[in-house]
Amino acid sequence: MARPELDGPVRARRRHLQAVGQAVKAMEAELYSLDEQLAALERECGCPRPKHQRLAPHSLQRSSSAKALADLATTTLSAATARSQMRFRMRWQLKTWRMRRRLQPAGKRALAVLHVSPRYGRVDAKLLGLQRSRNMKQKIAEGRYTHTWGQFKQDRFRRALQMPEETKVPPLERVALLAWEGRRSQGQPASYSNPDGSRESLRLTLWAAQESIDSLLKWCQWFESWPNSLPRQPYPVFIPTKGRAKDAHLNWRAAHCFGREAFEKTDEQTPCAFVVAVVEPSEANEYREVWADLPLLVLPESDMGPAFVRWCIQKISSGFRTELSHELGQLGPVHQMRYCWLVDDSITSFYRLDPLSAQLLQEEEERLLNRGALVPATPLCKPTGRKTERRSQGAMFAEAMLAVQRQASRGVCAICGFLRDDGTAPMKSAQWALDSTSVFKVVLLNLVELAKLQVEYVPQLRLFEDVCLNVQTRNAGGRILKCMTYCYWADNKSFGGCAAQRAQNAAATRCTGLDDLISASDFMELPDDTKEALQHVYSWVHRDEERSRQRKESLGLPAPLPAPDTALPLSDAEAGSGVTFLDEHFFDPFQDPDVDQLALDDVQVIQGTQQKQKDGQKANERRGFSLLRPSGQDEVVVLDCD
């Protein structure tokens, strides 16, 4: 439960009372001293004052100024000693906590501040205070959202992305792409496991016009040459979609997305934009009827789950060979990509967060202070208003992706993503967030770095496949970069996609078990590193669901049954992961930590270069990053470190 004594207004009142008490004691000591000095002068003059005219209050116990000062000095010394001892204990506990936390895998540490979505877990968002602010009504009354509330409608963006372009449909062709593991022909085809247990080569079919097929091959050639200059168009975009032929956001020729110009041949050095929808074979014809000229990448099987789809995209992007003749087994050369975008079919818009000028920031602060004075409730400890403002002009999808691509080319980040705007994006001050596991829906995969780390999607996983990939990346020493100067908006659709799995979880009478995430046979076949990451994900889900269940039981509300015990051989807890004095603050995301700033003492950000100074970490953890502003200018940026 949240501790009320840690709330901001309570801390502010406590600090104010302490300051007033110290000032009162100092004034009393001065009054006693003045009284004795005046008494000495009065004795010399022979005209003592009446007692009721003395300076010190009559309600206070009379004593000499020397004794009062001595008592005050003793009290001050005792308080200073106690404060020093407390700080020493806190520093010692913090050092111990850091050492123990360092022993934990990086992926598990990153999950400490991430919440399970109520859409996928048995979590009551209202009871746990998720996706809402405890003082939202007060913020609204103080006018924090005056300039943003209801100002950014998504209807026109949604309609533009759901409306196919009226163009002449060119002849369509089908090309079989065989996922290939290995640099050259000495490699071997990638394979997957069928539901019946047999294994087959991973073969996807690209159903598109010849122009789109040539665009994909040109991108592979561009990655092969890897010129020094950055491309003028975003890397190839893969959009998994299911059950939303008429409602998926697939028209990336829209003006606010890429624009029509991005798909036209304007530059010989940079290929034109390539956007492909990844569909199941049972729905390919339905999507083709709605989207006549959209490139479709048809999966080998249907109903294999979202993790399998994302795994197929990663495999086919890492390397593939075109199948010239299936009967003769003739294959084309190996084609590979270094980067690819993996985007959900529910993204509606992107916004750029431009910083406010100094004058606007001052006006915003004064407006909040004046508005807060009229609010009858207790004002917030520190009025914090907008630091940025949303801007949307032109092809924002392309602008945001190119900004992240510029940054990705300067470092070795395995995964890059964006901030999802929940209405509070203009309140953010950081420009980049490093090693945040909350990177979903729109991700840039560094296929080369992921291959070096031996990290890939777990195709057998039924839920939380994106979280598991992030945890695997962090455990292997990879870095995750999150752009905070561009944010996206997305729809939460109640049909298609993972709707069947969400409905099954909602109808369950118990919390999520490990068997609900992956079958026992599939779990036993995973590598040890993947098993460890999956166990961290399950512990994260179990943490939030168990806390929600216990709170429901304490309030007398209907609660699901506890998660069943698993018979799978799980690894023991990491050494040094026991609870310490400060663990309650750092590992409970529902409490307001009082020492968050102290936890960042070992992180240095100098002239835009970030490097974690931690002992005992892998070499990958110590690789520096020269961060850019999304505009491309070299200057100091604000970095939010995990």
How does the SSE layout of this entry go?
Layout (H helix, E strand, L loop, with lengths): L7 H38 L19 H39 L2 H5 L14 H4 L7 H6 L13 H8 L9 E10 L6 E2 L1 E3 L5 E3 L1 E7 H16 L11 E4 L34 E5 L4 H7 L5 E3 L7 H13 L1 E6 L4 E6 L3 E5 L3 E9 L2 H16 L14 E4 L4 H13 L4 E8 L11 E3 L7 E5 H7 L11 H11 L3 E12 L8 H9 L6 H4 L2 H6 L2 H27 L28 H5 L15 E4 L2 E4 L12 E2 L12 E3 L1
Parallel strand pairs: 6-7, 6-11, 7-8, 14-17, 15-21
Antiparallel strand pairs: 1-2, 1-5, 1-9, 3-4, 5-8, 9-10, 11-16, 12-13, 12-17, 14-16, 15-17, 18-19, 19-20
Throw out a few tags for this protein.
single chain; 16-stranded mixed β-sheet; 36% helix; alpha+beta; elongated; 18 helices; three-stranded antiparallel β-sheet; 21 strands
Low-pLDDT residue spans: 373-383, 573-625
Total helices: the number is: 18
Structural class: alpha+beta
CA-CA gap between termini:
24 Å
Helix content: 25-40%
Task: Tell the overall outline.
Answer: elongated
Radius of gyration: 31 Å
Oligomeric state of the chains? single chain
Question: How large a portion of the residues is in β-strands, by DSSP E?
Answer: 15-25%
Largest sheet: 16 strands, mixed
Overall mean pLDDT stands at 78
